């Protein structure tokens, strides 16, 4: 199968089956917290990170069952970051995937706690794959990865963007931290779940880094060009908030070229995997060419 | 050594030496985030959880070096929960350990992110002890532990407390979740670091649960009776916020009796450890008899 939408749908099905095992039921106290966790986890979304886990696990010769805890780990982690990023003190978003954000549907305190609990659950699930999986997720998700990227993003707000070397260095840190770190970790967790060799893991990590950066460049392009109806969240917010994005630093056309160059780099990695790399190539194209 | 203050000082020294290895330097970007993490981690505090790790590791025959990552894991985790609990949307505290809280010294977004990054760092450190240590920390720290207890605590705010069975059940959940869960996990991590037998670990976990509950009862008593100068944080906030505490449900004298009963239960566990249990007994007394 080298069809990205089919893989995404399959990963979503497997991931949601695994969530049923890992997420506490709504009836369990504290019910408000568990409702909020499930509200955000079951809000749909592309399930790109689980798809990467699944495809990388298969590419390294692992079974689908082997990577189930990794599907949970990456999506819990990703969802926690979305809940916290949407908070009033952060990006202050009311809409996510076409529905009220967690703090709008519940309240701010519950949203903070739901995010916190999902982070803990992500690590509990990662621990089912062993300590190395926990280390990969923790490094990608900490102050040198996802959280650092979000801080850089906030610090850059209101900055006068003139394409200086400083702008470009900060943009690179934001893109690596906010998005590429967790996407790379998703690929590595798939490899770890499969018991991959060191060279397989390195190849899949390199692939993940290319498409992680491509994903964020594509996101910057979409924010600048798509409508709310298509996007399912408020578009044009980056420009309104004076955010540092690939588009604001390099312009729209350069952003499109960069996404294409990163895609080519990812395809060079997948070519080394032969037939097993085909679905990864399709996913890479999907990331760059998606319209939401 | 069966002197609790000396053990606390020793644990603080060992923990702070380990932080130097694990915490990113202030000079590393994003500097604001790393400054906030260090500000809260190096704010002093009792270092009770590292002391429990150290004492339990020694009681199970482990070396001090073996438990260094666990000292970092429990204190990073504890500090993250304090930073988030202090946020305006949660307990809205301006003062912690006699200094401005993290969101007052920095800003709300940075405080949320510093807490998030410290949680990730806690799991990275726990992973150095293996996957079982991560599982213990994640279960204690998730929606069925620390985070659940904080949600219960917030949900109970403004409740009309009349000592009903429902009040008592909710209070028990709050005390187990908010405080006892992480204190129990600290004792277990010390045991795991030492390579303890299952029966040693169970004994140390039972000890941890007793003093964890005792700690929170003592905290409720202190909030109702101590002054800000002694406490280093705003006292009387529980009553002002209509919080469900041992004192509000059972009254001050009953709270003092309960703390004593829990102490006796902890001392029964330590008695089974012979001479190795002496310092744990001293720590248990310290927890109940402290004045801040």
Detailed description of the structure:
Two copies of one chain form a homodimer. By secondary structure, chain A is mainly α. The first copy, chain A, has one domain (4-287): Farnesyl Diphosphate Synthase, CATH 1.10.600.10. Chain A contains 15 helices and two strands. Chain A has helices at residues 4-22, 31-41, 48-59, 68-85, 102-105, 108-127, 131-141, 146-155, 165-193, 198-225, 228-231, 237-240, 246-250, 252-271, 278-289, and strands at 95-96, 99-100. In chain A, strand 1 and strand 2 form a beta hairpin. The longest helix of chain A has 29 residues, at 165-193. The mean pLDDT of chain A is 93. At the A-B interface, helix 2, helix 6, helix 7 and helix 8 of A face helix 2, helix 6, helix 7 and helix 8 of B.
